[in-house]
Structures are given as C-alpha cells and as structure tokens.
Specification:
alpha+beta, Alpha-Beta Plaits, Rossmann fold
C-alpha cells in the first residue's frame, strides 16, 4: 500500500488512543472519515488483488480547502508542488493525491485542511407579490421614472442540470445572454471553460438527469416573454409566455456540474472575476446546501464564501427541512448532563438502512462524551457500539457487533476542529442496518455550561420513541425538531440567507389543474412549510428574508424532459405531460414547469439584488441587508422568526444614496 498514506492513516488511528486533552485536528472530521473509508477500501483491494498491484495504482485525487496561518500565502503550497485552484489570500482550494495529504498537514504554514465536503441541490404571481412587475414597468424616483431589469449587472449561479441555450436565456435576435460557462466534472481538473458564444451554443447539458439549474437560472434571469403555448387554465393559450424571471436584462455567467465544496468556491470565484473584468457588479445564486456543519461560519467553506461575499452579492437558500425533526440543541447543567435520542430510519426514502450524516458539535474545545448504541426493543436494553471522548476514528460494522448490526457501516471521526476550537463528532452512515428488533441510539454527555448541537442529513430523524415519531416516548429520550434546520451554508457573515413563502398554490398542465393538498399548510401569503430556519451559533436568527418559492413556473432542460419521457413516463414533474408551457427554439422545443423550495425563492432574491445593483452598483452585502430590513413587506403572516425581515419588496427597496422613491 502507499507508504505516505499508511503513515497518515496510522497517525489518525493513533488518535483513538490519545487523551481528551489532545489539541486541534488540522484535518476536519469529514476529511478524517474520508481517509478512514479510503483506508478500509484500500485494505480490501490488497486482499483482493494483492499488495504489489495496489502499490502500482495511482493515488486518487481529492479536492481540499486549505486555511493558511496569518501572513502565509499560497506560494508556500506551490513550492511543495500542490495545484492551487482558487486563491483567496489566506484561503485556497487545491487538488492533491491522497498520498500527499500528510505532506500538506505537516506544513507549518497550514492552519487547517478540509476535505470531503459536497453540497446537494436544494412565475408571474411571484413577480406581482414581490413588486418585481412594478420595478420592471417603472418606479418614480424624485422627478424621474426608472425601469429596472438588471441591465449592467452580471448574475451567476453554481448549480446542476443546466441547459444554457434554453430560449429563456436568449435575446430576441437569438444571441445568447450567457456570457461564460464553466463545467466541473472531477477533482482532478480545472473546469471546462466556454468563453465564446459559439462554444456556448454548441453545449447541451452537463447532466441530462437533472434540471434544477435551468429552473433556478430562469427564475433569476429568464427573459422569454414571446410566443409559445402555455396553460393558465385547463385549456392551452397561444401567446406571450408569462413565466419569465426577475433580472431580465442582466448578463449571465454559469458554473455547473460537480458540487464539491472546492468546485463551488472555484465556480463562484470565476463568476466574480469575470464580472470584475467587465467592470460590472455581480449577484450570485447558490440554491445548494447541507444540514451538517458548525453553523457558525467558521468552517473553511464558509470562510471562503465570506471572502467572495466581499466582492459580490451572494444569496444562499435557507434549506427545505423546515418540517423535519433533524436537529437537537441541548444545554447541559448540573442536574441534566445527558441527552439521549433515537435515530429513526424512514424507509420511505428507499434506502435499506440508515443513510446520511450525523454531525455533533460542542460549544467549546472540551470533549463531549458521545456513545453510539443499539437499543433492543424487547428488553429495553442498550448495547454500546462505540464511545468518543477525545480524538478518535473508527468504523462501526457487523464485525463490531454481529448480534445488533445486520449490514452496512458507520464511519466516525472525532476531535477538536482547528477552525473554531469546538469539539466535533462526525459520522457517515453508509446504509447501516441494525438487526431486527434493534434501534440506533445516540447519547451525548456534557459538562455544566456546555452546549451540544446535533444535526442529521439523510433519511433519518431524531425521535424519543423507538417506533417512530408517533410512538410512545421513552422516558429520558428527546425528540428532534426543525428549529435549527437552517442550511449550514447560510451561516456566514457575508451572504444573504433566503427562505420561501407561498405566492401561489396551484398551476395547470396538459393533464389539468395541479396544486397542493388541502390542509398541507400551503396557504397563499404564508410561510412555505418546508422553509428552513434557525439560529447561528453566535445567536443571529436566520433566514434574513423570504421570497416566493412555491408553485413557481420556470424553464426546464429539454434534455431532462427527454430523459424523463424515455425512462419514466409517469413522472409528474419531468415529462411533457407535466409541462406548463412550451416554445419553439430553432428546430427544438423548450419547456417550462413547476418546482418549489427555497431553491426557487433564492434566485428570485438574487434577481432582485441585481435590480438594486443596477440602481446602485456600489452596494455591498451589508447595504443589501439594510435595504432588505428597511423595505421588506410585513403582514399578518410574518410575525415569526422564520421570516427574517419579511417578504422581499423589489420596488420599495432602496439605499440611502438613492433618490427619494414614490413612497
């Protein structure tokens, strides 16, 4: 096996024997888990094909975000032979082989290394509800009337399932509004760059099984308001399609593809660099996220995003887990120093076992005591599978306890994070399946004055009952809640976090009227039930503002529609029978369809930010937050912390430097 990698893994595994007083880990817990998994896979390959054959294999490449110590620069990394991709001063992204990780960690210039992060993909009524129509048609400012459509602004996004040549992104003369396109497809390469109109025109899509990015971009900046067929009732109408977006006059720059943390940072930076080269302000949309992480803006990804947020307006989705019991916050005291909860597996997600990420954060560097156990329902007894209190890396599997575990694994890493001096236990549940009659239990003990935050991202929730949310609670066990369900990406200082409200509850397709079920909580003007919310570790309430996010009609990738037609035929969202509008694009047909989520609300806000940047290109993220706080609409629905400032109001938004508006 690779010697450098063996040394690294041995060093990490040795941490399991170390006392809790051990200092920070330079490598984040997710990276430690990644190495633990890789070590196990490599060992299996050695058993299968032999040591000599494995040693002859090239070491796989991995992306990383590196935080440098004060005063250090990326030149020190280049001198060691590391391939630097994004350089944000004290934060850089690199691509490196696994067997070079120890070399990176050993460098005195390096404060922390974060690996293994990956994010997931989280209109006419909407425009009226948020006064975008008014901004488009003209606002009285002093003695003049000004129309705003985002002209002179670059809008960008990092997403997946892009069709950049959808008619929604073309000018009336057929030229493209998409000025740059970058496609990420692996850790090992810089993106494929499309910098000319002809190159972009010849591009199809990076992922025909997805359309999220095409829909998001259409909300943010789609401009097609010309002839087509659309359904605003049970009968088709031929006329100007009304489902265009917000920043209809802005230029568009797209990054798409692989959604690793490093690719996202690099993709956002390229959009901002292009805008800077053009001398234009930029608004960037990230309808992406994850529920794990410290939720304090200290992780390397958030630090990098914050650095970019000093150069452009970055809007981030709040998340779609506002109804899910995936979080627990516990304050320990002398009378109550333990938290216990069941991890309830919801098999409706289709996985044969617990799948996802369990992430536990302490409030300081004093280790919590975290115990993972199997609860036998017939005897109400616990069998300990692993305990963590200090630095430790281990894999829980059938070999750990063949009686309680049926199949699958859970890879766990624990230690103090170098970026925030907080104790962290990170576990990847790789379809861990317990034997019949057993349930997974997490116990966390802390000292008086400490706090613990538990997050789960995947197909499971926290529950006080071994039989699920509706079962009888076991004394001493805690239910989860959605109260801290805010996207961890939304917790930085220099980003705007966006939740979703309901501006429409129904839509039409060739199959007839579609809509939300009565009693589901989707009421016009109300918060969208799924819209995530929470409190940063520092105490700030999130999201900052809400925008329309439910029953939003926007552009669909024709390649995705074709894929759904060929592979499903019954998909309510992806087939031609589910499309709300169509238009001719040369010899092809382009589509519009419905989606909902904070993924839809966020590009709406990004488009509004572009309108404001058109009015005042000097606006910073701090200015945008002030504008949001001063101008958002409040009403009978917005009296909870889930809303932030309220409902974004494009027409009323103004900065102190602007002329007095029509108010």
């Amino acid at each position: 096996m690779n010697k450098l990698y063996a040394i690294l893994t041995a060093s990490l595994l040795a941490g399991a024997m170390t006392a809790p007083s051990v200092g920070q880990n330079k490598l984040n817990m997710q990276g430690s888990a990644l190495l633990e998994e890789y070590q196990a896979q490599r060992a299996q390959r050695i058993r299968t094909i032999g040591l000599k054959a494995v040693e002859a294999e090239p070491s796989p490449l991995q992306g990383a975000i590196v935080v440098l110590n004060s005063g250090e620069t990326s030149e020190s990394l280049r001198q060691k032979g590391f391939e630097v991709q994004s350089d944000l001063g004290s934060i850089v992204t690199v691509s490196l082989p696994m067997d070079s990780v120890q070399t990176l960690l050993d460098m005195p210039q390096v404060k922390s290394v974060s690996m293994g992060g990956k994010k997931r993909l989280l209109m006419n009524n909407a425009r009226n509800a948020s006064k975008v129509t008014e901004a488009h048609s003209g606002i009285s400012l002093g003695n003049t009337t000004a129309k705003y459509d985002g002209s002179g602004v670059i809008v960008g996004l990092m997403d997946g399932g892009m069709e950049p040549n959808h008619v929604n992104f073309l000018n009336e003369d057929g030229t493209s509004r998409v000025k740059r396109l970058w496609v990420y497809d692996s850790y090992s390469t810089t993106p494929q760059s499309y910098t000319t109109e002809s190159a972009i025109k010849n591009f199809t899509t990076e992922d025909r099984t997805e359309t999220h990015g095409t829909h998001v971009a259409g909300i943010m900046a789609g401009s097609y308001n010309r002839t087509g067929k659309y359904y605003s009732s049970s009968n088709a109408t031929t006329g100007n399609i009304p489902y265009y977006g917000v920043a209809t006059g802005a230029d568009i720059a797209i990054s798409c593809g692989d959604l690793t943390d490093e690719a996202i940072i690099d993709g956002v930076e390229r959009i901002i660099e292009y805008a800077e080269q053009q001398g234009q302000p930029a608004a960037v949309n990230l309808s992406l996220g994850s529920n794990y992480g410290p939720h304090d803006g200290s992780d390397a990804f958030s630090q990098a995003l914050d650095a970019l947020g000093e150069r452009a307006i970055i809007c981030v989705a709040a998340g779609n887990e506002g109804e899910d019991n995936i979080t627990i916050e516990k304050n320990f005291n002398s009378d109550n120093d333990e938290l216990k909860t069941f991890v309830y597996f919801n098999n409706a997600y289709g996985y044969n076992g617990i799948y996802g990420i369990l992430d536990i954060w302490g409030s300081d560097d004093i280790p919590l005591t975290v115990t993972i156990s199997a609860y036998k329902t017939s005897t109400k007894t616990l069998t300990t599978l692993a305990t963590f209190s200090g630095r430790k890396n281990t894999t829980i599997s059938r070999s750990t306890n063949s009686t309680a575990i049926s199949s699958g694994t859970m890879t766990v890493s624990a230690g103090v994070d170098a970026n925030n001096d907080r104790y962290n236990v990170y576990a990847e549940c790789n379809t861990l399946k317990l034997a019949s009659g057993y349930r997974l239990v997490i116990s966390v003990k802390g000292q008086p004055g400490q706090k613990a935050n538990l997050y789960f991202e995947g197909n499971s929730t926290f529950c006080a009952s071994p039989s699920g949310p509706n079962g009888a609670a076991v004394s001493g066990y805690t239910n989860g809640s959605p109260d801290q369900s805010i996207n961890s990406m939304a917790c930085g200082d220099n980003i705007l976090s966006v939740g979703a409200y309901v501006s429409s509850t129904s839509w039409y397709t060739p199959e007839g009227k579609m809509g939300y079920n009565p009693g589901s909580g989707f009421n016009n003007g109300a918060i969208a039930p799924y819209s995530s919310y929470g409190t940063r570790f520092q105490g700030d309430k999130l999201p900052h503002v809400c925008a329309p996010g439910s029953a939003i009609i926007s552009s669909y990738s024709r390649y995705y529609v074709s894929y759904c037609n060929s592979n499903y035929g019954y998909d309510d969202y992806g087939t031609t029978s589910a499309m709300t509008a169509t238009a001719t694009n040369g010899t092809a047909t382009d589509y519009w369809g419905e989606m909902d989520g904070t993924s839809m609300a966020t590009p709406f806000m990004t488009g509004v930010a572009a309108l404001w940047l058109q009015a005042d290109p000097s606006l910073t993220i701090s200015d945008i937050k002030k504008v949001v706080n001063q101008s958002s609409t409040t009403d009978s629905y917005t009296n909870s912390t889930r809303w932030g400032a309220g409902k974004v109001n494009a027409a009323e938004g103004r900065a102190p430097s602007w002329p007095t508006s029509h108010q």
